[in-house]
Every structure is written in C-alpha cells, then in structure tokens.
C-alpha cells in the first residue's frame, strides 16, 4: 500500500485507520473530556450538571434578590457620608486661589498642580452624592491650568 503514495498520504491513511479502530473499540461518555481520566468538576450523577437544567437562570443568579423577595434588614445603619469642606467651593475664584497659579509656574509645576488637585478632588474618589461637585471642581481646575499652559512662553 505504500507504493505510489507519498509519505504524507500514507500517514493520513494510517491515522484514519487508527481513528476507525478506536471508534469501534470504545465510545467515550458524553460528559467526559477526551484525554482526562476523570470527569469535570461540574459533573454530577449520571453526567447531568445542575447548571444544564437551568439554562437561562445563570444570568438571573447574578442580579441579586428577586423582586418579590425583600432583603433582610441591616442590623448596622450605615452613616450618611459627609461632604468634605473643599468640595463645597465650586466657584472659579475659589479654585484659582487653591491652585495658586502664578506667572512663575512652568510646565512641570502646572502638571504637578493638576495631579495634586486631581488626587484630592477626582470624582471617582468621593462618595456618590458629591460627585457632581467634584466633577465641576475638576473641570474648572483643568480649564484654569490649560489656560495657564497656553499662556506659557514657547
């Protein structure tokens, strides 16, 4: 059979013959992974996993309690967040005074002032009720610093 065939064709025929022989010898269980000697962790009795019985339920499992079910009452009352004093100052004049931008500022000092201001005032670092004020403060500070950068001598 090897005559008049390339090596590649003979290898393909041998592999095909081995597959046919292996297919006749043993049919692997549907819940098994070829090459593993044991089943997977999610397998339960008779190869039926619990998740496969609730096909569309996985999404709802992550949503939280069902609408008709009330959450248990919290035993410890969470205190209301208190707004830091600096977040109440949202006028451009107050923010300019905090930044203390001067004619002597360089590109490096202005960038450092921007980073320092953002560290204390970024909306992601404050409680949800105060994010509007923090966002407004950041916008004004960025505008003031951008204006100072634009006026720097080139």
From TrEMBL:
It comes from the Bacteria. Residues 61-86 are annotated as: Disordered. This is Molecular chaperone DnaJ.
């Amino acid at each position: 059979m090897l005559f008049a065939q390339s090596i590649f064709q003979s290898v393909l025929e041998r592999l095909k013959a081995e597959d046919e022989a292996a297919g006749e010898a043993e049919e692997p269980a549907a819940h098994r992974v070829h090459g593993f000697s044991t089943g997977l962790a999610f397998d339960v009795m008779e190869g039926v996993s619990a998740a496969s019985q609730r096909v569309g339920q996985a999404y709802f499992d992550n949503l939280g309690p069902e609408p008709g079910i009330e959450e248990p009452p919290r035993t410890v009352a969470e205190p209301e967040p208190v707004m830091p004093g600096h977040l109440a100052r949202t006028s451009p004049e107050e923010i300019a005074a905090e930044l203390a931008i001067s004619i002597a500022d360089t590109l490096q000092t202005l960038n450092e002032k921007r980073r320092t201001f953002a560290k204390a005032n970024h909306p992601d670092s404050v409680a949800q009720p105060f994010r509007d004020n923090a966002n407004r403060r950041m916008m004004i500070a960025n505008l003031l610093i951008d204006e100072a950068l634009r006026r720097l001598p080139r």
